[in-house]
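Hey, I'm writing a tutorial for new members on how sequence and structure tokens pair up, and I'd like a real worked example in the thread rather than a made-up one. If someone can provide the structure for the chain below, I'll link this post from the tutorial.
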Amino acid sequence: MNLPFLKKYQPKYYNEFQIDKDYKDLLNLLIKIDSLNILLIGNPGSGKTSLLEATVREYYNLDKLPINNILYINNLKDQGIQYYRNEVKTFCQTPSSVLGKKKFIILDDIDVINEQSQQVFRNCIDKYSHKVNFIASCNNTQKVIESIQSRSTIIKLKPLSKQFLSNIINNIKNKENINITSKAEKFILNICNNSIRLLINYLEKFKLLNTEITYEISRNICTNISYYDFERYTDLWYKHKNIKDAVKIIFSIFNKGYSVMDILDCYFLFIKTTETIEEEKKYKIIKIICKYISYFHTIHEDEVELVFFTKDLVDIN
């Protein structure tokens, strides 16, 4: 059976993670004293879920995980806390199937659920922490109530380095015999947004192609919107100051079904990786892109703003 790359290359134990020794020492200490109420903080795709699952494996130290001892909750945003209230209560009240070991409740992305739902888990921690470990992950601690944070050991993962991500590429491409040019490697490193998940998905696509992965192929495979369209758009507003034709290009992208936010997100990645614009100008362009993204998030999204966006780009000194 061919496993998806995300499963195939997912670290299972602490010694398979390329993280600071301090993290491993702290987690091993928490396992030793059997106090694993943990809140793990990190960017999307930084390996939080894998580290939480590895913690459970290290704790039980068994060939097969006792599934009756583990309750995964990862779709509260859709189901709501009422859906789980009775299940969580029953789970916490029943004894552990492993002698001398606690049970686990694992809550991925606790920051996406509302305060009322979080309070339910805070109550569970207070009532059942003598028999259940509560481990959770989040991207944004500001959306996690203080009473949960104060009851948890908070571990904040550092942003992943380019060298770390490059090591992942080298490991997988060698094991899977993926032939990829250095320029294509550099490109996917720049557009993966420091996400291990995204990077591994790109490599799996390359494996399926079964050919040498050039820069041109990587641009076509790893981006939603054609970079050729962005190159034409940029050439018109940046080199020729031609607002009219540049607007036609960006509206043609919009008319293919992409939202304004899709366009701005992808254009942000394009600007980061293009070699046709000097770094000082890139900084100014990214500042404008971020301004419009913030505007659309807080007020409204309207395609007419693409005209004003293009005008602001042309006006860059």
